[in-house]
Amino acid sequence: CAICLFALLGIEAAAAPAEDYPTRSVRLVVPYPIGTGTDTVARIIAQSLSEQLGRSIVVDNRPGGGTVIGMDLVAKARPDGYTLLAATTSLVITPGLMPRLPFDPIKDFAPIVLLDTAPLLLVANGARNVKNVRELVAMARAMPGKLNYASSGNGGAIHLGMELLKFMTGTNITHIPYKGSPAALQAVLAGAVDVGINTFSPSVISHVTSGKLVALGVTGLSRLPVLPQVPTIAESGIPGYEVVSWHGLLAPAGTPAAIVKRIETDSGKVLQDPNVRAMLSAQGFQIENRGAAPFAAFISREITKWTQVVKASGASVD
Length: 318
Fold this sequence. Notes:
The protein has 318 residues and is of the alpha/beta class. The protein has eleven helices and ten strands. Strands 1, 2, 3, 4, 5, 6, 7, 8, 9 and 10 form a ten-stranded mixed sheet that branches. Helix 6 links the parallel strand 5 and strand 6. Helix 2 crosses helix 9. The radius of gyration is 21 Å and the shape is globular.
């Protein structure tokens, strides 16, 4: 019948874009400024992924609002696969800090792939009389509120990573926020603060090697190959402690499953590229390549975890 024919044609027309995807350039929204770690990783992925897709990927930096501006842009974009989000830990931390978000971090996005994760490193100024996590906790308990720590700003993984440590140990260490990881690291190096959690990077490792910093513990569940002598915080008397930073790709909710699968598959090929793996490793990241379903489960668990930490610690974005 004519109606059936039109219905069939409508189905074919709707399916065609997914089958032909992509037919033009793809925008990858990065909710951080140019030159940040996330921007660097996004550009590494974008260059290689564009070769797999056969179309250019344009990195669009949209910082502001504690990453909310960029995330909201993608949440409200047309779900056609041509606007993607370079997501980070902020996606799972922000809901606890800002309950009235303009988007739902679960319902408004279609997870595609968890690209990588990276543990962080708890460090102390080399001149401080603290050599490991147990000594730090003992000192903090003996002097409530007297010790302080630097973070890269309110509400990030570094800030809440320390708040999680305080919560799990029942200690009171004063938070001193700085504008970015470099400034926070410099504060620890200069002795302006006692300790800080920082990203794993060649510069941090060099300061540990020189003795300017003391590596107290790794925030992940396994030790770092480059610092095998440094225990994890979990094995240092705080079982269950785990904090990792990560990067992943998401699309707006409602993006056709075929398009999500295409990007997921091609991202997997990108992550098998030795050059890409080497560049991410140099940034301190470990390849994950978890597809849409496990990535969605990961996001859900992380939101629950960090919302509990925010509530227990009273942390805010000020």
